[in-house]
C-alpha cells in the first residue's frame, strides 16, 4: 500500500496541468480517508490546497480527523464560512474532540449547539479530561442495558445495528454506574427470562478515565478483548476503549517516540513553513551544540598532549564511538523496559550488575582487539595500552550511564526517549576523551 501511495503522490506532483476534479478522482480512486490524509500531507502546501478542494464534501470530515493537527490547521483556516458551516453540521462528540484544536472557539460552540443533548453531554464529559487521558477519546458507540434487563432485552437490542468490536453488552444501574459486562456469546441457548446479571463476566476490569493513554493501551493489551469499558471517578460508564482506538494509540505512541528522539513533535507537518521548522530545530541544535562544546572543552584540557602525540587525535573517534554504541544499546533496552513497566526499584541493581558485566566483557574483548591494531598501526605498544584501557573504562561508564540516565529522567518526569541519547553521548564523549587523553599524558609524555 505504501508503494501505491508513493506512485499516486508522484502522479499529482509531476502533473504539469492544473489539478482538476478528474485528475484527483483518478489518483484518489479507492483510497480510504486515512490514505487521502496521508496523500495530502505528502504534498507541498500549494498542491495540497488544490488537492483538498477536490476532496468530496462527504469525505472531508473523515480526512481532517485523520490528518496531523499542524497539516490540518491551514486547511480549516482557509475554509469560507459556508463551507465551514457545512463541515460542522452533524459532527458527533468524538469527531469534534479530534477537530476542536483546529477550529475557532465560536465554531466549536456552533457545532455543540447543533448536537443533540446526548452527543453534547458526551463531548462535555470527554473535554474535561487532559489530552493524555483515555477519558478524552472514549468510543461512545456501544450497547448499554439496565442491570435488571433479561436475555430477551439483550436479544432485542442485538437485532439493531451493532457497532464494531461488539463482543459484550455493558450493564449500568439507574444512575449510569457501570455494573458489569455480559459476553454476547453467552446469550445463546439461554432462557428469555434469565437476568443478565447472572451472565456477567467478573474478570473484566473497567479502565479509569484518568489513566494515561500509555497505561490504558497496556491494560487493553493484557485484557485480550476487543473492547474495555471506561468509567469516571464516580464509576459512571463513559464509553469504551475499542481495538481500533488501541491500535491508533499504539501507532501514535511509536511515532511520538521516534520523533522525540530527534527533538521533534509527531504533529509536525512534513511541509511546515521554513521559519517555523527552523525555530523548532534550532532549539535542539543549540542543546547539542552545548554538549559538543563540553566535549571540546575536555579535549582542550589536553591540547599540549595532542600537539606532541598526534596518534591520540587520530584514535579519539574510536574511543567516543565505542562508548556511544555500547551506551545506546543499554539505553534502548532501558527505555523499552520503562515503557513496558518492567523497571522497578526491586530489579534496578540486578539489572545494573548485568549491564556492567556485559559492558566489562565486551570492553575487555574489544580493548584487546583495538589495542593490538593501534600498537601495530603506530608501532607503539604504549599507545595500544592507553587506548585499550580507555575503551574498557568508557564502555563500563556507558553501561552505567545507560541504566541510570533513563531512570533519573523518568523520576524527573522527562521522557528518556527525548533527551536520554543526548545526555548519554555527552557523558561517553567527555569521559572517553578525558580518560584517553589523561592516560596518554601519563604514559606517552
From TrEMBL:
<keyword id="KW-1133">Transmembrane helix</keyword>
<feature type="transmembrane region" description="Helical">
    <location>
        <begin position="421"/>
        <end position="444"/>
    </location>
</feature>
<feature type="transmembrane region" description="Helical">
    <location>
        <begin position="383"/>
        <end position="409"/>
    </location>
</feature>
<feature type="transmembrane region" description="Helical">
    <location>
        <begin position="282"/>
        <end position="302"/>
    </location>
</feature>
<dbReference type="Pfam" id="PF03448">
    <property type="entry name" value="MgtE_N"/>
</dbReference>
<dbReference type="GO" id="GO:0008324">
    <property type="term" value="F:monoatomic cation transmembrane transporter activity"/>
</dbReference>
<feature type="transmembrane region" description="Helical">
    <location>
        <begin position="308"/>
        <end position="335"/>
    </location>
</feature>
<keyword id="KW-0813">Transport</keyword>
<keyword id="KW-0460">Magnesium</keyword>
<dbReference type="InterPro" id="IPR006667">
    <property type="entry name" value="SLC41_membr_dom"/>
</dbReference>
<dbReference type="InterPro" id="IPR006668">
    <property type="entry name" value="Mg_transptr_MgtE_intracell_dom"/>
</dbReference>
<dbReference type="Pfam" id="PF01769">
    <property type="entry name" value="MgtE"/>
</dbReference>
<feature type="transmembrane region" description="Helical">
    <location>
        <begin position="356"/>
        <end position="377"/>
    </location>
</feature>
<feature type="domain" description="Magnesium transporter MgtE intracellular">
    <location>
        <begin position="31"/>
        <end position="134"/>
    </location>
</feature>
<dbReference type="InterPro" id="IPR046342">
    <property type="entry name" value="CBS_dom_sf"/>
</dbReference>
<keyword id="KW-0812">Transmembrane</keyword>
<protein>
    <submittedName>
        <fullName>Magnesium transporter</fullName>
    </submittedName>
</protein>
<keyword id="KW-0472">Membrane</keyword>
<dbReference type="InterPro" id="IPR036739">
    <property type="entry name" value="SLC41_membr_dom_sf"/>
</dbReference>
<dbReference type="GO" id="GO:0016020">
    <property type="term" value="C:membrane"/>
</dbReference>
<comment type="similarity">
    <text>Belongs to the SLC41A transporter family.</text>
</comment>
Amino acid at each position: 500500500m505504501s508503494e501505491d501511495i508513493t506512485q499516486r503522490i508522484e502522479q499529482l506532483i509531476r502533473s504539469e496541468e492544473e489539478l482538476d476534479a478528474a485528475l484527483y478522482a483518478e489518483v484518489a480512486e479507492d483510497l480510504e480517508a486515512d490514505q487521502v490524509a496521508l496523500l495530502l500531507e505528502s504534498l507541498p502546501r500549494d498542491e495540497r490546497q488544490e488537492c483538498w478542494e477536490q476532496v468530496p464534501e462527504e469525505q472531508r470530515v473523515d480526512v481532517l480527523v485523520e490528518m496531523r493537527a499542524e497539516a490540518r490547521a491551514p486547511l480549516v483556516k482557509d475554509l469560507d464560512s459556508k463551507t465551514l458551516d457545512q463541515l460542522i453540521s452533524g459532527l458527533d462528540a468524538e469527531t469534534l474532540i479530534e477537530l476542536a484544536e483546529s477550529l475557532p472557539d465560536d465554531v466549536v460552540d456552533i457545532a455543540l449547539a447543533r448536537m443533540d443533548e446526548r452527543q453534547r453531554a458526551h463531548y462535555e464529559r470527554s473535554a474535561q479530561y487532559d489530552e493524555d487521558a483515555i477519558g478524552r477519546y472514549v468510543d461512545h458507540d456501544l450497547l448499554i442495558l439496565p442491570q435488571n434487563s433479561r436475555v430477551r432485552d439483550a436479544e432485542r437490542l442485538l437485532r439493531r445495528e451493532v457497532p464494531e468490536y461488539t463482543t459484550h453488552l455493558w450493564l449500568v444501574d439507574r444512575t449510569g454506574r457501570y455494573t458489569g459486562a455480559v459476553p454476547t456469546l453467552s446469550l445463546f441457548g439461554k432462557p428469555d427470562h434469565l437476568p443478565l446479571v447472572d451472565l456477567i463476566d467478573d474478570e473484566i476490569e473497567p479502565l479509569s478515565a484518568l489513566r494515561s493513554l500509555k497505561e490504558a493501551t497496556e491494560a487493553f493489551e493484557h485484557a485480550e478483548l476487543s473492547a474495555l469499558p471506561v468509567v469516571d471517578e464516580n464509576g459512571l460508564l463513559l464509553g469504551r476503549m475499542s481495538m481500533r482506538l488501541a491500535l491508533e494509540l499504539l501507532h501514535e505512541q511509536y511515532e511520538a517516540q521516534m520523533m522525540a528522539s530527534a527533538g521533534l513533535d509527531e504533529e509536525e507537518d512534513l511541509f511546515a513553513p521554513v521559519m517555523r521548522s527552523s525555530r523548532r530545530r534550532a532549539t535542539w541544535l543549540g542543546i547539542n551544540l552545548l554538549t559538543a562544546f563540553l566535549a571540546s572543552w575536555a579535549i582542550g584540557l589536553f591540547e599540549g598532549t595532542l600537539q606532541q602525540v598526534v596518534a591520540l587525535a587520530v584514535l579519539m573517534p574510536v574511543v567516543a564511538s565505542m562508548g556511544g554504541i555500547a551506551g545506546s544499546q543499554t539505553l534502548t533496552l532501558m527505555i523499552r523496559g520503562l515503557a513496558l513497566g518492567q523497571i522497578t526499584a526491586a530489579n534496578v541493581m540486578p539489572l545494573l550488575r548485568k549491564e556492567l558485566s556485559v559492558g566489562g566483557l565486551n570492553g575487555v574483548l574489544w580493548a584487546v582487539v583495538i589495542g593490538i591494531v593501534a600498537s601495530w598501526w603506530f608501532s607503539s605498544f604504549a599507545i595500544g595500552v592507553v587506548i585499550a584501557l580507555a575503551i574498557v573504562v568508557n564502555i563500563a561508564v556507558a553501561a552505567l550511564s545507560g541504566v541510570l540516565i533513563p531512570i533519573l529522567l523518568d523520576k524527573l518526569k522527562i521522557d528518556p526517549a527525548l533527551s536520554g541519547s543526548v545526555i548519554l553521548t555527552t557523558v561517553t564523549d567527555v569521559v572517553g576523551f578525558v580518560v584517553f587523553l589523561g592516560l596518554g599524558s601519563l604514559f606517552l609524555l
